[in-house]
Design a protein that fits this description.
single chain, 434 Repressor (Amino-terminal Domain), Rossmann fold, 3 domains, 13 helices
Length: 352
């Protein structure tokens, strides 16, 4: 005969509601009590029925995570940091990839999420006014990474200011012809990042009295392959940059690979700066803007759990993290007298 929740409650000396909250990871129960209840339930072989619990409460205990890519490092970092916190609160994750217009229309226009989830977490997806209203109509907490919408939980960096800082670093080193490898502004799946970082790039140049040159701006996929192709276009033109700002580290890796193939040394011939502080950035000595990706995932998950536990507190002040310029060996002064490095030394890191 199966053990019931009433028997577990009796053994633990608590109410059935406390047993339910303890096993579902809900707030309102002390850590000591929750741990004791879980241990007793395990000893007695009791396992709560998720379906029964959800039917009784009217909640799905599920959060939809909507993002443009599943196979990119940035999104893996966000998910990797958010998932343990959401799971620890008794929440299931339902992943949606909306990397094209058709997928966006299906999820936002037709309300496929209605009654299927208790919350929605969107990562770097620029929203139209119609999409915002569709999300509001769901009546569930909404969390955002990469941008702000009034009434929604959000965690972001200032992409405009961060991009300007990256370009200013190159300007301070004497570079004026600075190439930009960027995402497509018209690509709604990466709209906020591509738009804002390009704006920051142009703003820094204009503040320095340099007119942005469209020939030095190349759109590409946010990938190493995209960066390689974009760099090939930049250096296939008559006016070639002395420095490159890539909107992601992976783009920068591709650009560095192309420069190596062309026999151009980094940073002797061309300086390169990226964005993210990808784990490989340190390995390849890439100067970059560190935006603490995992911390953004952790913070938005904490905000989502709090909003689900108390919807009245949802829509609190957005969290804005400050990116940090991390200077390594891929950037140097425009006019250098250093000894020319031998071929193949592009990625070499000096000992010590």
């Amino acid at each position: 005969m199966e053990t019931t929740i009433h028997e577990v409650a009796q053994r633990a000396g608590v109410s059935t509601a406390t047993v339910s909250r303890s096993l579902r990871g809900r707030s309102g129960v002390s850590l000591e009590t929750a741990k004791r209840v879980r241990e007793i339930a395990e000893q007695m072989g009791y396992s709560a029925s998720p379906l029964a619990s959800r039917l009784a409460s009217g909640h799905t205990r599920t959060v939809a995570v909507v993002l443009p890519y599943l196979d990119r490092w940035f999104y893996g970092e966000i998910l990797g940091a958010a998932e343990p916190i959401l799971r620890g609160a008794g929440l299931d994750l339902l992943l949606y990839r909306v990397g094209d217009a058709e997928a966006r229309h299906a999820h936002f226009s037709f309300q496929r999420l209605r009654k299927r989830v208790d919350g929605v977490l969107l990562v770097t997806l620029g929203l139209t006014d119609v999409e915002v209203e569709a999300l509001r109509a769901l009546g569930v907490p909404v969390g955002l990474v990469g941008f702000d919408v009034e009434g929604f939980e959000s965690v972001r960096i200032d992409d405009v200011a961060a991009a300007s800082t990256a370009v200013q670093h190159l300007l301070n080193l004497g570079h004026e012809q600075i190439g930009l490898i960027c995402g497509n502004e018209e690509d709604q799946s990466m709209f906020t990042v591509a738009r804002d970082r390009r704006f920051g790039y142009r703003a820094a140049l204009e503040a320095a009295g340099i007119a942005p040159d469209p020939d030095l701006e190349i759109s590409a996929d946010f990938s190493a392959h995209g960066g390689l192709k974009a760099a090939a276009q930049l250096f296939g033109r008559r006016r070639r940059p002395s420095a490159i700002f890539a909107e992601s580290d992976e783009m920068a890796f591709g650009a560095m690979s192309l420069l190596h193939r062309l026999g151009r040394r980094v940073p002797d011939d061309v300086s390169v700066i990226g964005f993210d502080d990808h784990p490989m950035a340190e390995v390849l000595d890439l100067t970059t803007m560190c935006q603490r990706v995992a911390e953004q995932g952790r913070l938005i998950a904490v905000r989502m759990v709090a909003a689900l536990d108390d919807p009245r507190g949802a829509g609190t002040e957005p969290i804005h993290l400050a990116p940090e310029l991390v200077v390594r060996k891929s950037t140097a002064a425009r006019h250098t007298t250093r000894r020319r490095a031998p071929p193949g030394a592009l990625y070499a890191k000096k000992a010590g």
